[in-house]
Design a protein that fits this description.
This protein has about 90 residues and is mainly alpha-helical. It has one domain. It is about 65% helix and about 0% strand. The chain has four helices and no strands. The longest helix is centred in the first third of the chain and has 18 residues. It is extended and about 45 Å long. It starts with a helix and ends in an 11-residue tail after the last helix.
Amino acid sequence: MSPDTQEILESALALPSAAQVELIEALIARLDEADQQPLSEDWIAEIQRRSADYDAGRVQPIPWSDVRDRVRGQENSSGWRALPPGSRG
């Protein structure tokens, strides 16, 4: 990470949580605008298949908090670097 980027990150991390979320959303929206590539037919078919499975009740969604906790458990047991407590991971 460049020194400028590191400085911006440190400033952003000093913001209140609500302001951090606003900043993240603005950055993601900007990236989304810059990356307007159409989806391939394969991706569209996959999205439609998954959506149909969900709508028909053939899959059970997993809450983000469960997925995050599971990944953090894998990180800890495999030596990966876990996110600090309280971070938005």
